[in-house]
Write a structure and sequence with these properties.
single chain; alpha+beta; Immunoglobulin-like; 8-stranded antiparallel sheet; 8 strands; rod-shaped
Length: about 190
């Protein structure tokens, strides 16, 4: 929400209701003002006047509360870091021992309590091939997902349930042939 939208929303929240003011209410206010100006004592407010006043005060309080809530939400969402400015979790590098000629690859891992996440930036693999990603551990292979290669650099993320400390190898294999095209290990 930009500033103009916020001001528009606040203006609507604080605006009086679109309804006619009853003539007898206007007459009562004028009579009280005249009595107060002439020094005469004022009559106690009528029950209807007190109810209207309570509704008006309650409406204003509600509008101020809504405005404060909207302003607080906008301030909280716009003042904190976001996107690339946000604090990223710590990553650790992957060292690749097998990379096809002409292919560029960069890998990092994030060690989560539920498993390992692989951040893989890769370009110039053969286009339109499907690849699977697995993590090798002492207990066997753990599937971590897959991708289809495209003509532009790819920034991929893969998650597997193996903890980083147990992963001995990361393998990216051509799904059609089973041939491993990228091989690395967390360092």
């Amino acid at each position: 929400m930009n500033d103009d939208e916020l001001l528009g929303a606040l203006g609507d929240a604080l605006a009086p209701p679109d309804r006619p003011v009853p003539e007898d209410g206007i007459a009562e206010v004028r009579a009280r003002a005249a009595a107060a100006g002439s020094g005469a004592g004022s009559a106690p407010p009528s029950a209807e006047g007190a109810t209207r006043r309570n509704v008006l005060v309650g409406s204003i309080a509600a509008a101020v509360g809504v405005a404060a809530g909207v302003a607080g939400t906008v301030a909280a969402t716009s003042s904190g870091p976001s996107g690339e400015d946000a604090a990223a979790p710590p990553t650790r590098p992957v060292e690749f021992s097998l990379v096809p000629a002409g292919t560029t690859v960069d890998g990092r891992t994030i060690d989560h309590t539920w498993g390992m996440e692989l951040l893989l930036d890769v370009s110039d693999l053969p286009i339109d091939h499907e690849y699977t990603v697995t993590y090798a551990t002492a207990d066997g292979e753990v599937a971590a997902g897959g991708f289809r290669s495209v003509a532009i650099p790819m920034a991929c993320r893969f998650n597997g349930t193996a903890l980083r400390a147990t992963v001995t190898e990361i393998a990216v294999a051509d799904r059609a042939t089973g041939e491993i095209v990228l091989r690395g290990r967390p360092v």
